[in-house]
Every structure is written in structure tokens, then in C-alpha cells.
Write a structure and sequence with these properties.
Layout (H helix, E strand, L loop, with lengths): L3 H12 L48 E5 L2 E4 H9 L3 H4 L3 H24 L6 H25 L4 H13 L5 E10 L2 H12 L4 H8 L10 E5 L6 H7 L12 E3 L2 E12 L5 H27 L15 H9 L4
Length: about 325
């Protein structure tokens, strides 16, 4: 039996349209004064997948594990699909993951077969999109080969030494907040704190943020983890200080207190190795692309179709045999 949780995750991954997670700041929601986690960056098209359970399929025989209308699905295709999964799904044990991945591939091929029977693959727009997808795969494969070869372990270690090893770790502050609907109420709470009232007690009484139950305590956070208006004020305060004026962020007003400051250790090389690798590859991308353009016969045209290329480019294009 296919694990239902895995199938649901794979189905959602295959067909769901991304939706915004979490409420906008200034609304009463968990962590409302914290910066919403940034959506995962769009994957770099040259990104190497790294190790995951799919790697174990590389050196095995490649049997057919399913067939849909005569179209075989091989074990290597299952491995490719596993390598493409988000990291949290790749952590699922292989024997639990495999049935769900295979079922997703069967589903995909059944839908592809139906699309071909309906003639959708002959639609000009679809054909153009299919060609674009094919081109992107080739682009990715080339960039992986060229850029991977330019990122040595020595280069990664040198970048780590430059960016992390000799620098102090990032600073964090322990922040408390009282989130209120009006500036007048915020000023009233600031006055009560100045008169000796306990900040945590006021937060429990008045705050409409989800942190109210913890006395407004958000824990230790870096500045980039707070929305800008809150972070700028919090990191200007010393431990024990309360913001002298209300801070507006979104539709709400905030009273801010800093309980403590600390510096955290820099991440180890292993923690940031892939991040550093991506940085170096990104930096080298333009030169690789420029080299490819210099080797190609490129002509540019105006939007009305008239030639906009310099004469030397036209000559180069005309002398180059067409593929």
C-alpha cells in the first residue's frame, strides 16, 4: 500500500499553486512582528542537486518498474524524481518514499498519454513551451558541468575564511513587544512602563500579537528576522530599555523592549559550504554565458522584424552553417 501521507505530499507538490503563507505583519497572527520567512529563492538553474536517496540508484541496473500505455518507467527515472524533491521529502526513508514517487510518475505518464491522444502536443503554444523546457534542461546540464569544474574545495575554503572565519558572529537581541491597534494605547503603555509597570504583564494584558501569552517575548533574533521598522528600533536599544515612542508597522503600533544582546558563533564550513558554492557559481555565470555568446552566431532584430545587428554580427551569422 502506498503511504497516504507521501502520496498527498507528492500530489500537492505536482499540482498545487503556491499560496502566501502567514498573515501580513500588523495583523494578529503568530510571530506577527517577525519578518515573514522569505519564500525559498527560485532554484538556480545550474544548481547541483547534492546528495539524497536518489543517488543510490545511479549505480544500479535500470529495470522497468512500471509501464503506461506501453511507455516504460525505469528505476533511473524514479531516482531522477527523488533527486528533484525538496530536501524535507528526500529525508523520508527510501522504502517509504519509493511507492509514492512511482505512483506520481505513473500519474504523470497517464496524463501525458491522454494529452497526446487529445492532440494537445500539437498546439503551437504547447510545442513552444516544450521546446523551452528542453532548452532549459540542456542549459542546466552545460552550466553544471562548466561551473562545477570552477569551484574547487580550495576555493570554497578560501571564501569561507574570507567571509566567516575571521569575523565576529551576527548579533542577536532578545525582544519583547506589545502590539496595539492605536498610537494612543501604545503611548499609554509606554507611560505605565515608565511609571514602573511590568512590561510582560502589560503585554499579556494589552498585546494583540500571538506573543502576548509569553509576555511579548519573541526570543533572540537577528535584525534581518524582524520586520524593518521593529528591527531598526530594537537594535538601537540597550538591554533593559523600552522604546521611548510607539513604532508603527503596518496597521498597528508597537512598544518594544530589549532584554538582552548576544553574539552567536559563526556557522561552520559544512553549514555554509553549499551557500558559498552557489555564490561562486553565480559570480562565474556571466563569464560562462559571455563565452557561449561569443562562440555563437547571434543576430538581433527590432520588434518590427528589421535587422538590428551590427554588420560584423550579420556577416558572422551568414557564414555560420545552420544546425
Amino acid at each position: 500500500m502506498i503511504p497516504s501521507a507521501v502520496c498527498r505530499l507528492l500530489a500537492v507538490m505536482a499540482v498545487a499553486v503556491p499560496i502566501a503563507a502567514g498573515a501580513a505583519y500588523g495583523q494578529s497572527s503568530p510571530g506577527a512582528v517577525q519578518r515573514e520567512p522569505a519564500p525559498p529563492p527560485a532554484p538556480q538553474r545550474f544548481m547541483s542537486p547534492g546528495y539524497n536517496p536518489g543517488e543510490i540508484l545511479r549505480d544500479l541496473a535500470n529495470p522497468v518498474v512500471a509501464e503506461v500505455d506501453g511507455r516504460p518507467i525505469t528505476l533511473s527515472e524514479v531516482g531522477d524524481a527523488i533527486r528533484a524533491l525538496p530536501a524535507n521529502l528526500r529525508e523520508i526513508p527510501f522504502d517509504e518514499l519509493y511507492p509514492g514517487v512511482l505512483e506520481r510518475l505513473i500519474q504523470q505518464q497517464a496524463l501525458v498519454a491522454k494529452a497526446r491522444r487529445m492532440g494537445i502536443d500539437t498546439d503551437p503554444v504547447v510545442r513552444r513551451q516544450m521546446q523551452t523546457a528542453s532548452d532549459r534542461v540542456l542549459e542546466n546540464a552545460l552550466l553544471n558541468r562548466l561551473l562545477d569544474s570552477q569551484v574547487s574545495e580550495q576555493a570554497l575554503l578560501a571564501r569561507y575564511q574570507k567571509e566567516y572565519a575571521d569575523k565576529a558572529g551576527p548579533e542577536e537581541v532578545q525582544v519583547r513587544v506589545i502590539m496595539l491597534a492605536s498610537e494612543a494605547q501604545a503611548r499609554k503603555d509606554i507611560a505605565e512602563v515608565a511609571a514602573g509597570a511590568d512590561f510582560a504583564a502589560l503585554a499579556k494584558r494589552d498585546s494583540v500579537d500571538a506573543s502576548a501569552g509569553q509576555g511579548g517575548d519573541l526570543g533572540f533574533l537577528r535584525q534581518d528576522k524582524l520586520i524593518p521598522e521593529i528591527g531598526a528600533v530594537a537594535f538601537a536599544l540597550e538591554p533593559g530599555q523600552v522604546s521611548p515612542n510607539p513604532v508603527r508597522a503596518g496597521r498597528n503600533w508597537f512598544v518594544i523592549k530589549v532584554d538582552a544582546r548576544r553574539r552567536v558563533a559563526q556557522p561552520g564550513f559544512a553549514e555554509v559550504r553549499e551557500q558559498l558554492r552557489q555564490q561562486i557559481m553565480q559570480e562565474n555565470l556571466k563569464s560562462v554565458a559571455d563565452d557561449a555568446i561569443s562562440e555563437a552566431a547571434v543576430r538581433r532584430f527590432n520588434v518590427n522584424g528589421t535587422d538590428a545587428s551590427p554588420a560584423e554580427d550579420r556577416d558572422k551569422s551568414q557564414s555560420r552553417p545552420r544546425p
